[in-house]
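Quick log. Single chain, no ligands specified.
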Amino acid sequence: PEGELAAAIAKSFGSFADFKAKFTDAAAKNFGAGWTWLVKNADGSLAIVSTSNAGTPLTTDAKPLLTVDVWEHAYYLDYQNRRPEHIEKLWTIIDWSTIGARYK
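-> predicted structure:
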C-alpha cells in the first residue's frame, strides 16, 4: 500500500508487517465459515473485523476495504485444511491501488 492508506495502516497497526500478521492471525482463527475484513471506521481509523456465516460490516458504519473468505469452499480444493497457507498466498495477489481508492 502507498500514500494515505499506508499511513493509516501504520497509524492503526504500527507497520504493514504488523497489520499483515494481525490480519493473517485473525483470518486463520476465524472459527468455521466466515470472513475477515479490513475496514475503515467512521473516524478514519482502520480495524480488522471477523464475521461468521453471512455477517458483514456493511450493516454497520464501517466501510469494507479488503476481505478474505475463510469458508472451506474458498480454499479446500487447493489447500485442503491448510487455511493459513491459503491466507498467505492471498497476500501475493492483493491489488493495493484498488484498496487505496476505497480508503479515500
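The radius of gyration is 13 Å.
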